[in-house]
Amino acid sequence: MRLSELGEADFLRELGARFTDHPDVPIGIGDDAAAIRMPDGESVLVTVDSLVEGTHFLPSTTPPRFVGRKSVAVSASDIAAMGGRARAAVMSLIAPPEIELASVWEVIDGAAEKCEELGMALVGGNMARSPAGLIVDVTVLGHTVDGRTLKRRGAAVGESSYVSGTLGRSACGLKLLQAGATLSASNGLVAPAHLRSGPLELAPECIRAHLDPEPRLALGVELSARELATACIDLSDGLSIDLVRLCEASGVGARIHESFLPLAPGLVAWEREWERDPVELGLNGGEDYELLFTSTPPLGGGQEAIASVVGVPLTLIGEVVAREPGAPVVSWVRDDGSVEPLETTGWDHFTRE
User: Fold this and answer.
1) 347: in domain
2) Do 209 and 326 fall into the same domain?
3) Pair 191, 326 in one domain
4) Are residues 117 and 182 in the same domain?
5) Could you read off the pLDDT tens digit of each residue along the chain, which spans 353 residues?
6) Tally of domains within the chain
7) Could you list the residue range(s) of the whole structural domain that residue 222 is in?
8) Domain boundary, last residue among 143, 174, 199
9) Does any domain span residue 346?
């Protein structure tokens, strides 16, 4: 059997089954980050992610500085999903020998900038030769706060599901970049003539969301400290597939409502301009790096209180339901009231091109 036949999700499931529990590892393979218990009662959080040229970015659409910044952000987002504080990062830079030295420094400087903004330190790493294309691999180290850790498992029937921020900005930004739009040095938009008929005032925000995502570290800490989230995951591959992952880890199902989704204004405007369905891209576009979490209803005043502290809105999108045999993991409630299985078409590294 080839890896492409098995797929990413089933491979990771089999990988986790190969490892036995360790007394000093309360959370191992299968969550956003691993937790290693320390003598003082806290846990070290460890996560790693990669940006691969041709898979995660193209040099034609992503300047080297943003490759560095994004490589840190996507790993730090996993620490956010665990409710932890990110403290340090190490970077492996696997580069082809013909790469321009200036580009290498831009990647490193971008990573260092992002680390500083997030209160982290870039403390070291590794370099190796790549036969083709740039690969940036970042490990982020964090720790729990007061011994608390958010996990993917823990959602229970009757709870509500929430998402932070808005959905689809990054996917819209990628489409704009692929269509020839860029950001200037001052973060202004440079758009080719065929894009200038669209809602250009919303384009820079979408492009920045794709090139330079902001991990929701403060929100993760608040959810953990207030003990409001029963389960949590970051939205890296798309709401549709990441919600399924949370449900499968918790042994539950979910129902979400089309009318509840907080679609990014830029996504709605541009997808209407291109006569596309913004809801589909909001569900499946990926790389939003928002937090999806469940909570015992009603979150009520806590919702506004957290949003005011972290500066990120929280939106109720549905509810946790019992997982029935043969039933879809996630049901989708349309605006007209009809209910159908939610098609999971988010990103899978080995089954989707």
Assistant:
1) no
2) yes
3) yes
4) no
5) 776 777 767 766 776 777 667 777 788 777 777 787 777 878 899 999 999 999 899 998 999 999 999 999 999 999 999 999 999 898 998 999 899 989 999 999 999 999 999 998 888 888 888 998 999 999 999 999 888 999 999 999 999 999 999 999 999 999 999 988 888 777 777 878 777 767 888 889 999 999 999 999 999 999 999 899 999 999 999 999 999 999 999 999 999 999 999 999 988 888 888 888 899 999 999 999 999 999 987 776 677 778 888 999 999 999 999 998 888 999 999 989 899 999 876 555 556 55
6) 2
7) 160-341
8) 143
9) no
326 domain residue, yes or no: yes
Helix (H) or strand (E) segment spanning residue 162: strand 160-164
HSE-up of 309 (CA within 13 Å, CB side)?
16
* Phi/psi-derived region of residue 53, left when phi > 0, alpha when psi is between -120 and 50, beta in every other case: beta
Residue 342 DSSP label: P
Cis peptide, bond prior to residue 298, ω within 30 of zero: yes
* CATH classification at residue 59: 3.30.1330.10
Torsion region of 24: left, alpha or beta (phi above 0 gives left; psi -120 to 50 gives alpha): alpha
| pTM beyond cutoff 0.70 | yes
The span from the CA of 293 to the CA of 191, in Å, is 36
Are 11 and 351 in contact by the 8 Å Cβ rule? The answer is no
Residue 263 falls inside a structural domain: yes
Q: Does one domain contain both 90 and 177?
A: no
Torsion of CA 23, 247, 6, 130, to 10 degrees: -70
